Amino acid sequence: MNDCATAPVLSASDYKSATKPIWCPGCGDFTVLGAITRALAQLQLPPHEVAVVSGIGCSSRIPAYTTCYGFHGVHGRSLAAATGLKVARPELTVLVASGDGDGYSIGGNHFLHACRRNVDLTYIVMDNHVYGMTKGQASPTTEPDWDNKLSPGGSGVRSFHPLVIALAAGANFVARAFAGDQNGTAGIIAQAVRHPGFSFIEILSPCVTFRPEQRAWKERVHHATVDPTDDPARAARRIMTDDGFNLGVLYAGDREPYRHKRKPAFRTMQDLEQEFAV
């Protein structure tokens, strides 16, 4: 009689570390963290086979709050680090946690090229339209007329549209979620991880400290009334004409993910010398 050990079923709590989050009470990032752990439980991925990479900002604290491998990088460089990790260790599931400042301002160039390369990553951006960690400056996604002490009368600068940019640059999966819908967000994250190639999820995550009016987002968000499309032109029309509060998967493409072609390892010192022979 065979005594086969059965792998234990993992729950969301198995992905949460003992480190307690230090976000402001009411911050949407609490529920995003919960959605990430629920998604990993849905997928039943062992924590040691998942890596969470981040940059700088409130949202970028997430790696410390999980039991997965984590890398807390420098400002705006999370996608560069995550790309290198995934190419070197393709067997890992790599998630990237970012915010609208970290991801679209100093990290904007990396965002464009990560979409273009289509490496099999899942990029989760918690967007609150403000620099929350540095006391409330306007971010790339802030409305041009948002009046505050640091930008009296508003910045006057047009808002960055991340979903349009992601689609145009070549992301293979584009979706929007809301932090207040933890189960729905977890489902979208799980879909993104399963989908091959570069997956991008914008999560509307209210900052109740510097943008208390964002509490009203729960009344404004609504699920998209159309199914996801694999047609970039149709997806572009949807994204360009929506009100910024449509939730769900907006585009799921079929581009082949980037596959790194590794050279065979050198077997001897003579092989290495031959590589550099003139």
Set down the secondary structure blueprint.
Layout: H1 29-43, E1 50-54, E2 69-72, H2 78-88, E3 93-99, H3 100-104, H4 108-117, E4 122-127, H5 162-169, E5 173-178, H6 182-194, E6 199-204, H7 217-220, E7 222-223, H8 232-241, E8 246-252, H9 269-275
Parallel strand pairs: 1-2, 1-3, 3-4, 4-6, 5-6, 7-8
Antiparallel strand pairs: 5-8
Helix pairs in contact: 1-6, 4-5, 5-8
Descriptive tags:
278 residues; alpha/beta; Rossmann fold; eight-stranded mixed beta sheet; 8 strands; globular
Whole-angstrom Rg: 20 Å
For the record, the CATH architecture stands as 3-Layer(aba) Sandwich
The quaternary state of the protein chains shown equals single chain
Q: DSSP strand (E) fraction? A: 15-25%
Total discrete domains: 1
Measured as a percent range, the helix fraction is 25-40%
Number of helices: 9
* Class computed from helices, strands and strand pairing: alpha/beta
The tally of strands reads 8
As residue ranges, the low-confidence spans are: none
Q: Could you give the order of the helices and strands?
A: HEEHEHHEHEHEHEHEH
